[in-house]
């Protein structure tokens, strides 16, 4: 169920509606944000999908630009005066089902004048609005995200990313995934964080091996590991690194051992 419904008029600030959708989806997840051209699948009954999405939402954002009020309808005349105008119908449905409605005024759009709207959407004139200026887009989008999180606390429950500017996956939460035919427990690799200053060890309950800061070659298999040259026998010398001074190398001195003299034997 999408918690935020983005309402906009074709021909009036579709780009702003797309920007809002992108930012909210980045913070809360795409499935939490409904925008008709994104959320309705080809072949679906768009009328049923639109009205169902409005009724199930917690919040409707009405994106209102300079051409929103005076746009011409399919039958001629002002679109807002046509009961079948979808922008009007979505807002009216939200009011009828108790869904909070927040107007988002884009750029230099002024707030809606009193008495200008049909009765079923007239409450929109009194709704406190947010503003989105393309010259101040970063700050305005951040404020909009915060206000959406305040209006829909269940979105904020997904983590602090709504106010910190971090995407949901970066906040240390559980990564969504699907595992089939699994017997036993499953852990997502991205959910396991283990910091070690050195050495090797297991990551929480034997979910794998972590290698810290190894100071040299590391052997993880079986058998003998030899780092550097290997010398067998005598007389070998290996010098690594810088050498300042002399290196003396010689064969080991051999001491001759004599048999002890017997009593009575002479010698020189």
Automatic annotation (TrEMBL):
The signal peptide annotation in the UniProt record is none
One Pfam family in the UniProt entry = TIR_2
Provide the residue span(s) of the region labelled Disordered.
Answer: 156-268
| Entries under SUPFAM superfamilies matching the protein | Toll/Interleukin receptor TIR domain (SSF52200)
Extent of Polar residues compositional bias: 221-232
Ranges of Basic and acidic residues composition bias in the record? 254-268
What Gene3D superfamilies does the database record attribute to this sequence? Toll/interleukin-1 receptor homology (TIR) domain
Task: Report domain TIR positions.
Answer: 1-152
Top-level taxon: Bacteria
Q: Which PROSITE patterns match?
A: TIR
Q: What is this protein called?
A: TIR domain-containing protein
State the organism of origin: Nocardiopsis mangrovi
Q: The organism's lineage?
A: Bacteria, Bacillati, Actinomycetota, Actinomycetes, Streptosporangiales
């Amino acid at each position: 169920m999408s918690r935020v419904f983005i309402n906009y008029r074709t021909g009036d600030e579709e780009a702003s509606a797309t920007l809002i959708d992108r930012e909210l989806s980045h913070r809360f997840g795409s499935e939490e944000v409904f925008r008709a051209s994104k959320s309705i699948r080809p072949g679906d009954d768009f009328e049923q999908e639109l009205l169902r999405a409005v009724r199930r939402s917690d919040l409707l954002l009405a994106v209102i630009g300079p051409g929103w009020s005076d746009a011409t309808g399919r039958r001629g005349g002002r679109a807002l005066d046509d009961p079948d105008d979808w922008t009007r119908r979505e807002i009216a449905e939200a009011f009828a089902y108790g869904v909070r409605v927040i107007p988002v005024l884009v750029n230099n759009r002024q707030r809606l004048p009193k008495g200008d709207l049909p009765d079923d959407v007239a409450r929109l004139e009194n709704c406190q609005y947010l503003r989105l200026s393309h010259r101040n887009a970063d700050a305005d989008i951040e404020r909009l995200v915060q206000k959406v999180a305040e209006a829909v606390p269940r979105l904020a429950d997904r983590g602090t990313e709504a106010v910190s500017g971090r995407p949901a996956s970066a906040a240390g939460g559980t990564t969504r995934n699907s595992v089939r035919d699994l017997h036993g427990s499953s852990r997502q690799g991205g959910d396991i964080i283990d910091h070690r200053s050195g050495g090797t060890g297991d990551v929480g309950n034997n979910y794998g091996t972590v290698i810290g800061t190894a100071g040299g070659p590391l052997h993880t298999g079986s058998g003998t590991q030899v780092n550097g040259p290997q010398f067998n026998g005598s007389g070998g010398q290996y010098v690594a690194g810088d050498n300042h001074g002399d290196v003396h190398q010689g064969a080991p001195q051999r001491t001759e051992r004599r048999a002890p003299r017997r009593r009575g034997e002479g010698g020189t």
